[in-house]
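Long-time lurker, first post. I've been practising inverse folding by hand and with some scripts of my own, and I keep getting stuck on stretches where the structure tokens seem ambiguous. Below is the full token string for one chain I'm working on. Before anyone asks, I'm not after the true native sequence, just a reasonable design that respects the backbone. If someone could post their per-position residues I'd love to compare against what I wrote down in my notebook.
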């Protein structure tokens, strides 16, 4: 098997800031060159890669900036019926949409498809060439996103109550919270908000059928993956980068992991 990752220690690729969509884009570029295909294929997918660049909050520089330049041109030109339906459904005009507006009003709806429902709907929307069908899915994702907001809000309140009910938080180095009633699709959002509010490395874990799925967010200079390395005997699996990671853990190890991580 082959691994395509510019951040591997043995990879000398000059730009390390690619997101997953960017890596896929570069792989497609290499295949086009290898197979002698038309280069216009690359241009036609730049708007989708641009959404990935914005969603993953990678640096808007170097290749990311170049890809996003062409992608934004296509988005503003309404080339993708699916993206156009999402933009118009957010009461914006495609020809005037900006990166920040996509980040706050469009991308959350795409994410909502997989967070609390069937992620394949977002794929169907992106590849659709039927405007009526696209608007129908876009409307569904709008409703899903509102549902996601309510779930997230309630989880955040519950997490805050758990933090504030604990004595001596000001002396603890991190926050680890877990609950059987939490939705795994929004733990990353809640982890980010708890991290921001309390300025602590944070792990939020949703437990189901004896297995915990966790999302981790950190603050500089703490490398959260290095922190998880020191707790690996309690974890089934984990991975990520210094400021964000994910993990799986047996319910039986939750308390021990919480103590060790903090």
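-- Answer (accepted) --
I ran through it position by position. Result:
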């Amino acid at each position: 098997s082959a691994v395509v990752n510019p951040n591997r220690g043995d990879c000398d690729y000059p730009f390390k800031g690619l997101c997953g969509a960017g890596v896929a884009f570069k792989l497609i570029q290499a295949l086009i060159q290898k197979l002698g295909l038309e280069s216009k294929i690359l241009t036609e997918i730049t708007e989708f890669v641009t959404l990935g660049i914005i969603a993953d909050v990678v640096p808007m520089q170097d290749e990311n900036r170049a890809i996003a330049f062409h992608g934004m041109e296509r988005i503003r030109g309404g080339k993708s019926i699916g993206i156009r339906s999402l933009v118009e459904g957010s009461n914006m005009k495609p020809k005037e949409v900006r990166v920040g507006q996509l980040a706050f009003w469009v991308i959350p709806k795409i994410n909502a498809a997989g967070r609390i429902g069937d992620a394949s709907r977002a794929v169907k929307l992106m590849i659709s060439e039927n405007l009526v069908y696209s608007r129908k899915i876009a409307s569904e994702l709008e409703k899903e996103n509102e549902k996601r907001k309510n779930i997230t809000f309630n989880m955040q309140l519950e997490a805050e109550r758990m933090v504030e009910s604990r004595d001596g938080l000001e002396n603890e180095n991190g926050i680890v919270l877990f609950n059987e009633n939490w939705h795994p699709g929004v733990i990353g959002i809640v982890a980010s908000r708890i991290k921001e509010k309390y300025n602590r490395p944070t792990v939020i874990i949703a437990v189901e059928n004896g297995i915990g799925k966790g999302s981790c967010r950190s603050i500089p200079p703490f490398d959260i993956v290095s922190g998880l390395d020191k707790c690996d005997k309690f974890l089934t699996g984990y991975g990520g980068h210094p400021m964000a990671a994910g993990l799986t853990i047996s319910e039986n190890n939750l308390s021990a992991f919480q103590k060790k991580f903090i």
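A couple of notes from the structure itself: The beta strands are 175-179, 202-208, 211-217, 235-241, 244-250. Residues 131-164 form the longest helix (34 residues). Happy to go over any region you disagree with.
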